[in-house]
Design a protein that fits this description.
The complex is a heterodimer of chains A (about 210) and B (about 290).
Chain A lengths: L2 H9 L3 H13 L4 H21 L5 H25 L6 E7 L6 H12 L3 E9 L1 H9 L4 E5 L7 H12 L7 E5 L5 H7 L3 E2 L3 H11 L2
Parallel strand pairs in A: 1-2, 1-3, 3-4, 4-5
Helix pairs in contact in A: 1-2, 1-3, 2-4, 3-4, 4-5, 5-9, 6-7
Chain B lengths: L6 E4 L4 E4 L8 E5 L5 H8 L4 H12 L4 E4 L8 H15 L4 E4 L3 H10 L5 E6 L2 H14 L2 E5 L10 H17 L7 E4 L11 H16 L2 E5 L10 H15 L3 E4 L4 H13 L7 H16 L1
Parallel strand pairs in B: 3-4, 3-10, 4-5, 5-6, 6-7, 7-8, 8-9, 9-10
Antiparallel strand pairs in B: 1-2
Helix pairs in contact in B: 2-3, 3-4, 4-5, 6-7, 7-8, 8-9
Classes of the chains: A alpha/beta (about 210), B alpha/beta (about 290).
Chain lengths: ~210, ~290
Amino acid sequence: MTLEQIFQNVVEGEMAAVEAGVRSALEQGIPADRILNEALIQAMAKVGRLFEEGEIFVPEMLFAARAMQTGLKLLKPALAATDVQSAGKVAIGTVQGDLHDIGKNLVVMMLEGAGFEVEDLGTDVPPEKFVQAVQNGAQVIGMSALLTTTMASMLKTMEALRAAGVREHVKVVIGGAPVTDAYARKIGADAYAADASVATRIVRQLIA
Amino acid sequence: MTQHCNTVLRSKSQTVTIQRDRPTVIIGERINPTGRKAVLEALQAGNFEVVRKDAVEQVAAGAVVLDINAGVPDADEPALMQQIIRNVQAVVDVPLCFDTANPKALGAALSIYEGKALINSVNGEKRSLDAVLPLAREYGAAVIGLCMGEGGIPKTAEARFAVAAAIIERAAAAGLALDDVVIDPLAMALSAESGAGRVTLDTIALVVKEFGVNISMGASNISFGLPDRKYINATFLGMAIHAGLTCPITNPLLAEVNTAILAADLAMGRDDYGMRWIKAYRKREKAKVAV
């Protein structure tokens, strides 16, 4: 199977075909980092674009991400051996008091698909946990909130990052239905991301 | 067969009874700044015209109870809640449903409200039960209990039923009548979990069979992430009404929602000879001519 076919199967969310494709590509001796970059990462970039444009919907994006992850798992041993660097370390969670996770999960998957090492902190994440993630080496923090009333937890987390003296060591991106660019500026976050595809682009810029 | 509960709500002069043999009660959802930028910006600017207009339009479109949410970031929620209530009560005379997770805002709302309100909501967590149930008792309000507890939102209908049962038990211990407890089974997005709709419908059936209580729910979450959401919402509403939903929190200005509820009531035998259906049809036709 060619890289082009793997790419297409990721876009279409064909998990089994991606698995078979990556296996055969490795057997053919195609370097793991080429499979990663030219098939998986580019496919997820396309999926993100299609989602942003309203061409595909949440379930299709989830299927694509799952197919990508299947391929990534097969590549991991080979990637570790060739010492390929991850694009960066990101920790992401839904803020304290909020249990919504669909959007957050999409961002996690898109970031993984873009080659980042992602720590998923889950939902209802207290400020201390974000602080801890930075202390553990996260270069970027992603915060999600779906309610106007839980947005305040973003501010609390920003304050906690400052109080712990780690604000300068990390970039902060926020998102979620009620969140705006103006709110990001107001609480001193580095950026607002409107959707998972934009989030990936912004994270890449922030740690370039 | 379990007795059907009567949840009676009152405004200054109107009484609304939610009961399974009567037409479905629409709780209008639009007075809520979450996801509605116009409302958010107006409230931030101290302008209540949008809220007043939302109240009048929703009642005209068939809402018989209005949900009031004052969730503006960084705002003084108790004070804002009271201002919204005064503005809404100045233009419509329908019972209100106070939608807040903040006990102070809830207390502020109940303390100035004339009538019998619905509280949205309490959940199965001890902290929530301890804060909300005494307020419901003190002000004689009815309360919506969400099927989620200390461990988050249960994945199965049986586990959600168990949370509902625990809330009902705690409410009784706090001195609330079973008639004044409404259960919300929670509707999650089908785009992320294919079984989400079934869990909700099965939870409704289990709770109604055991307790006969009224059932509320926000029905639009179910279609998140999918195209043409209105068709999904309308069909799901009809199915949920069959399962036992009696007072959905929804947008009556959407024709699909409104007609789905009317058709479901007709099919359930709660609209004698289709007179409400016919009346609503004439109203739609008249609106078409007016345009």
